[in-house]
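Progress against Task 2.4 (sequence-to-structure conversion) is shown through the following example record, which the project officer requested during the mid-term review.
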Amino acid sequence: MPDHELPGSVTFCGRTFSAPELELIEQIAREFASLGVTEISRTICELLDWKRPSGRLKNHECRQLLEQLREQGWLRLPEVRQLGPRGPRRVPVTAQSEPQAPMEGSAGEYEPLRLTVVEADSRDSALWMELVQRHHYLGYRVPVGGQLRYLVRSAPCSDRVLACLQWTSAAWKMAVRDRWIGWSAEERMRNLPFIVNNSRFLILPWVRVKGLASKILAHCARQLPADWERRYGYRPLLLETLVDQQRFAGTCYRAANWILLGETQGRGRMDRYHQADGSARKLVFVYPLCLSAQQQLHQASPLHFTEPEPD
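Structure tokens generated for the chain above:
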């Protein structure tokens, strides 16, 4: 039996689980403990119809929900197959992330750019994590929900990495973004997956190329929708990002025609899990991937709407 009585409801990754659903989760975890956490989470996703717009199970999110319930004493999981740690992960630092000779000039000298999708457990994945851990001020954190990572290289110097990007599931609530879209709480809960967050953008410190950052953002805005669709089965409608204005002005986003909506309320992206971190207010930028992004985010099934991307 769990150490504490189950709560009346729990909200996680944009879905509120009722008391009967939590009781079902506890029952499955207790009666099928021999299956291990992976099979338990898949079973729960099937029973509760917890799926992505593409129809794939939200198995990754369910595993993290189970871990959270266990940590709070509301659930017991098989001891021999507990989930790995979330949040900061120890990333070994090797010579491959050492500072390199400066790369200078203008962005045009480095075209064409090549954005390579980083696959899990690949050599590129280890390199991406190490570069971000060592050179990004936030370091590397295990993302929640969907994710897509890129390494950016240049055809004229294909053996060298220029930048790293990470795109993840959108922030659960952001007042300025939600007012700009104009959607209801129900519409937000249903269509939030169609927004993708640029959670990491690292131009390596020895890369001092004028105009490169905005050119990478423009290139990524063209390439990401198809890459995201290949991985998750649907195309996003809107990109978003948060800029720490104590460190940056968001110049590259402005130059790439992103829209500045305003500031956050200083509670952090993790507010969706009721874990406000008191972080400083950040600038909120968005980039519509089609002309009617706001309209589509109100629709019941934006997945079935197609429109050419703007030039």
